[in-house]
């Protein structure tokens, strides 16, 4: 379902809710007018009409609640599809690297055989540097999350974003659902990229740190400043400051609360080369013992 379809559906449901509430209020007013009283309509019939409209209003509220839940599920499903695609791309990259590795060995062996030792050393150093840029994604202990971050790093290159990633955690022995980690990191990174790609600094930083009894995930980006009044609303279902479905941060907070964690937002202005722009940091804290 497209974002425009989401909006139309929400507007339709909210309009229906407003209509039911209007009819309920109007029925209460109309039934108690002098004109109706002179028609000698029994009190129980008037009460029945009021209760009927009240029931319709409650049912409509329940329908709207289920609608928002369904939209949240649709968003989560799309996130899963995107992450599966990222994992497939990651696997294909590893296969390509294995093939390239065989070629590298043949070239190194050939240079050694013809006595080009200095050239062989330079070639090995070049390969080593390229491997460092890729291998930093392997040690998280969660293949799905590694694949996601690797895919996001490629997207950062496309948008010329300075994407920095650091970690000191191994998820292999921790009881966190990989899809939940992807929901948290994926939505926060997407949100950061949206603002950073049109900013002056074009900076996004992701840190996943082991803090003893808890895991701390921080995502910082340039190009956005969230004031106090908006901080109270950005996690609400349907609320958005960038013309989207308003589900991303809602999903993040819901997932964090599932683990009895917390999420904080901090914004500030920083000056770089005499240009001041906003920076926003989302900090997610997840306790290890759930």
TrEMBL record:
Gene Ontology MF terms: phosphorelay sensor kinase activity
Protein's UniProt keywords contain Ligase: no
Keyword Translocase: no
EC number: 2.7.13.3
Top EC class of this enzyme: transferase
Recorded catalytic activity of this chain's protein: ATP + protein L-histidine = ADP + protein N-phospho-L-histidine
Top-level lineage group: Bacteria
Membrane-spanning ranges: 9-29, 49-68
InterPro entries hit by this protein: HATPase_C_sf, HATPase_dom, His_kinase_dom, Sig_transdc_His_kin-like_C, SPOB_a
SUPFAM superfamilies noted in UniProt: ATPase domain of HSP90 chaperone/DNA topoisomerase II/histidine kinase
Location of the Histidine kinase domain: 177-290
Keywords: Kinase, Membrane, Phosphoprotein, Transferase, Transmembrane, Transmembrane helix, Two-component regulatory system
Protein name: histidine kinase
Organism this protein belongs to: Caldicellulosiruptor kronotskyensis (strain DSM 18902 / VKM B-2412 / 2002)
């Amino acid at each position: 379902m497209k974002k425009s379809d989401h909006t139309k559906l929400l507007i339709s449901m909210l309009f229906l809710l407003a209509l039911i509430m209007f009819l309920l209020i109007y029925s209460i007013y109309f039934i108690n007018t002098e004109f109706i009283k002179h028609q000698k309509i029994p009190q129980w019939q008037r009460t029945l009409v009021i209760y009927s409209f009240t029931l319709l209003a409650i049912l409509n509220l329940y329908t709207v609640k289920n609608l928002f839940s369904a939209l949240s599920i649709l968003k989560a499903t799309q996130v899963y599809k995107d992450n599966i695609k990222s994992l497939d791309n990651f696997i294909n990259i590893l296969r390509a690297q294995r093939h390239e590795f065989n070629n590298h060995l043949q070239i190194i062996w050939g240079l050694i055989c013809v006595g080009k030792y200095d050239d062989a050393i330079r070639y090995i150093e070049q390969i080593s540097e390229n491997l460092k840029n890729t291998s930093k994604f392997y040690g998280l202990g969660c293949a799905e999350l590694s694949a996601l971050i690797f895919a996001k790093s490629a997207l950062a290159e496309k948008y010329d974003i300075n994407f920095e990633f650091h970690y000191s955690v191994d998820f292999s022995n921790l009881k966190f659902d990989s899809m939940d980690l992807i929901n948290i990191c994926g939505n926060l990174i997407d949100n950061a990229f949206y603002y950073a790609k049109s900013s002056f600094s074009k900076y996004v930083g992701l840190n996943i740190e082991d803090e003893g009894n808890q895991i701390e995930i921080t995502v910082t980006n340039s190009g956005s400043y969230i004031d106090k009044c908006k901080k109270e609303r950005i996690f609400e279902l349907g609320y958005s400051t960038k013309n989207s479905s308003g589900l991303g941060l809602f999903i993040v907070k819901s997932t964090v609360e599932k683990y009895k964690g917390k999420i904080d937002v901090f914004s500030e202005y920083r000056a770089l080369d005499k240009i001041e722009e906003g920076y926003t940091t989302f900090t997610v804290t997840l306790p290890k013992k759930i």
